[in-house]
Amino acid sequence: MRIRDLYKTEIYDERRETALPPLLLLYVTLTYIITVVSFDRYQTLRIVPLAAYPIFVGLFSGVSCRDLLRKMTAVMPFVILIGIWNPFFDRIGTECFGFMISRGWISFFSLMIKFLMITASTLIMVSAAGFDGLCRCAAAMGLSEVLVTQLFLLNRYIRLIVEETHNTLRARVFRGGRITLSNAGNVCGPLLMRSLSRSEKIHNALLCRGFDGTLWRGKCCMNRLSMQDIVFGLFWTAYFLIVRFFDISRIIGDLTVRCVI
Amino acid sequence: MKVFEIEKICYSYPDGTKALNDLSFSVSEGDVLGIAGANGSGKSTLLMLMMGCLIPSGGRITYYGKSFDRDTVRSMRKETGLLFQDPDDQLFLPTVWEDVAFGPRNLGLSENEVASRVEEALHATEIEELSKKAPWKLSGGEKTLVALAGLFAMKPKTILLDEPTSGLDPRSRRRLIDIIGKTDMTAVIATHDLDMVLDVCKRVIIMNNGRIESDGEVPGVLCDIEYMRSCGLELPLSVAGRSS
Predict the structure, then answer these.
(1) How many A/B residue pairs have CB atoms within 8 Å?
(2) Which of A84, A186, B84, B93 is 20 to 30 A from A250 in CA distance terms?
(3) B51 in A contact zone (CB under 8 Å)
(4) How far apart are CA A250 and CA A247, in angstroms?
(5) Does residue B182 contact residue B162 with C-beta atoms inside 8 Å?
(6) Do A15 and B103 touch (CB under 8 A)?
(7) What is the Cα–Cα distance from B55 to B111, expressed in whole angstroms?
């Protein structure tokens, strides 16, 4: 996977024409994350019905499943590194689908599922609302303007570094150069200098257009939520609450068994 | 009325290289001034100094008679627009519309006024169809036009253009020249494109090694083949074509 792939399409491609306002997406995604995190680490099966949210919103927003998986795959090794120790430290056995399995493995799978759900929902939110939409939304909700502006510019700087890295690597590769540990410093140093130089130019360009540290002055008013948006928000909030307080998986399982018998 | 008055300014880069040396000239209201010179002659640095992005190591710049200080620079930037050599440095918001609206919003205008200015600027630069696109997905010429629309939306009194036609195909170049030619703003255009200077500017300054070699009427300066060569330049193609 190329470095640039990690940062392309979702955040910086053309704004997706989604009907969901950023404020609504932010609210529902936050509620979703809180709900997912609130489950105990051994309640693996109870989390599964929550997968409906990222699947539905992902399809509705037209987010590319391939890009989503790419990004999640890039972060996954870190999560595996954290969770893989669970089976070693938590060796108490428990029965699962008729098999004996250590609780460490259950908590490991639980961690992986939670990671997939939270990452997918967050990426979909950023994709559908746009990073600027979320920043504007945060500013409208009263978050410090300085902080929001910093966040937005940091995002821009990351993109700039990715672009410069891509250009530098391509220039080296096209001239037969290879990046090794011994010459990595020769690549990183100029890369940093180039990115700083471009950042300075971008900052100057901002200053020349009257930028004084605030990006969203006078335009923080968000679009009003329509009735459909409110119904969307209420529906998912209700769904999350039901999944949180009732064991939907068990209820569906029992009903299926009764129907079959 | 003098818009900019540059008196004996000098500028050296942090490594000690002298970029500008003892430069003096003025820009009056309504002037369309071309600044031509070979690569590294200091044209871009001069524009950055005029916008207050760099501080001269010597000399003085005044804007409508006021010396550059924090307040003067701030008010000058509201009335003066700079088109950067690389439009990628200038465009940073997610859509063309948002980017063009950035300047007017910083002027503290109402959203209705911002919208009308953006529409006006997009119309003037003939890029209405790009308004919903992401700037980084556009071609070089389109990016330059978007950056120019960003300037026009601020309704500046003066525009400073740094190599506006570099990297443009002939059609985009002609379009840009026509757009610049139609404006009634004071303009300072730093460029290698001598044909553009011939088409658009009334006066030209030729720079060489950080110094002003000549400052005068466009046809008189640009048609002197020996002089142009001594400055690392050539005759404009249209003039060279005529003389041959």
Answers:
(1) 72
(2) A84
(3) yes
(4) 5
(5) no
(6) no
(7) 35
The interface pTM score, or ipTM, of the predicted complex is 0.82
Whether A118 and A35 have beta carbons less than 8 Å apart is answered as no
Domain ranges of chain B: 2-84+157-243
User: What DSSP string runs through B93-155?
Assistant: SSSHHHHHHHHHHHTT--HHHHHHHHHHHHHHTT-GGGTTS-GGGS-HHHHHHHHHHHHHTT-
Can you count the helices (H) and strands (E) in chain B? Answer: 11, 10
Nearest to A201 among B89, B93, B134 (CB): B89
How many residues can be counted in chain B?
A: 244
Tell me if the pTM is above 0.80: no
Nearest to B103 among A131, A156, A210 (CB): A210
Average pLDDT over residues A78-102: 85
Enumerate residues 210 to 229 of chain A having a beta carbon within 8 A of any beta carbon in chain B.
210-212, 217-219
Q: Which helix (H) or strand (E) holds A136?
A: helix A131-140
Q: Per CATH, which fold does B2-84+157-243 belong to? A: Rossmann fold (3.40.50)
Flag if B93 and A211 touch (Cβ within 8 Å): no
Does B144 score more than 70 pLDDT?
Answer: yes
Tokens of B22: 């003892």
Tell me whether residues B92 and A156 touch, CB distance under 8 A: yes
Residue A61: phi, psi to the nearest 5? Answer: -85, -10
Chain B residue with the nearest C-alpha to that of A202: B89
In whole angstroms, what is the distance from residue A202 CA to residue B136 CA? 14
